[in-house]
DNA sequence: CAAATGTCAGTCAGTACTGACAGTCAAACC
DNA sequence: GGTTTGACTGTCAGTACTGACTGACATTTG
């Protein structure tokens, strides 16, 4: 990423996010962060006061968090495969956008209060949406009627697992090997839930 | 856990495992580990030489690693639901037994060389076994024939996700909420893969 | 007695964070 | 146009503390 045109504040936030997500909060020094941002350590402290506050600022600034509910009510077409695809895609999009923040919350749970909750808010929302979707689909007779909570949970867990797996192996963005997984996983669920 | 009867060496290893899995390698001091073990810091260094070596020793001592392949060839009964249950159970048993080591490898990836690979060895093995199982089942006409790799991968990812989810929420052992998930997830796959 | 452990003082390197001072640069003012 | 001002940044030396690790000597325990 070319950060040279950003303000110094943003450069620091991004550098912090990159480094801390890789090596953990205690694994990175303020000196390193400043160097990575092409600035002096002094500037870091002048802008943020402390290392903690720097990380919190990074979190606030770069934690993407739009509302989803309305979005879904418009987009669902009440066809199982199409809608599952929408859910999968939305899930991975959210997770990938917050990928680094997510990694930090995994590694440094103890360090930041309430971090985990915020990071998991959207996935939880998605789970709710999917559960309700399954219930409605059953009512419409378009799906077998049995344990929608667990079915939704299973679907989400599958995607959660795949995302985490992705985090480890190829640390770069392109969810290239994710795509065939998404396709197949949807086929499986569609076949299992069809009435 | 009552560690009072163990040798001092084991007490240190367990204390290290407990603390580091919660707060990360850099988040725990040697002093804390020693205190938690009810011993002096000096003893820690006398026994292990360094903090790194302590962790490595803990890993070697408490990373359960029996072979699985033979085990499976004996236990599989070639009935989809029963065998999927066996795979699920084995998976969660392995993961839970290595739970703390696994958490450390998540948090402190960078710290330990080759940690991740060792931790993931058994899950990978399981994936292979399951893939081959699916292939054979297709050949026998007991399962639809289509993309066994991805189907196995999806199944494993689902369980991986559930395991990770478990790690976060209730930090204690009893995989109580895991059980209904396992049941339902197997139903789903059995229904999806039935010919 | 011998092996294991504790105590305590101390070394050494790192690390978050500060203060004093100086340079740059663009806008504002004369 | 030249000067001043103010916001921002850098340098450097330094403080205060932490944390891994050591050595000398005393104490416990089987």
Automatic annotation (TrEMBL), chains A, B:
It comes from the Bacteria. Keywords: DNA-binding. It holds the Pfam family TetR_N. Residues 6-66 form the HTH tetR-type domain. The keyword Hydrolase does not apply. The keyword Transport does not apply. Residues 29-48 bind DNA. SUPFAM superfamilies: Homeodomain-like (SSF46689). PANTHER family: HTH-TYPE TRANSCRIPTIONAL REGULATOR PKSA, HTH-TYPE TRANSCRIPTIONAL REGULATOR RUTR. This is TetR family transcriptional regulator. It comes from Paenibacillus marchantiophytorum.
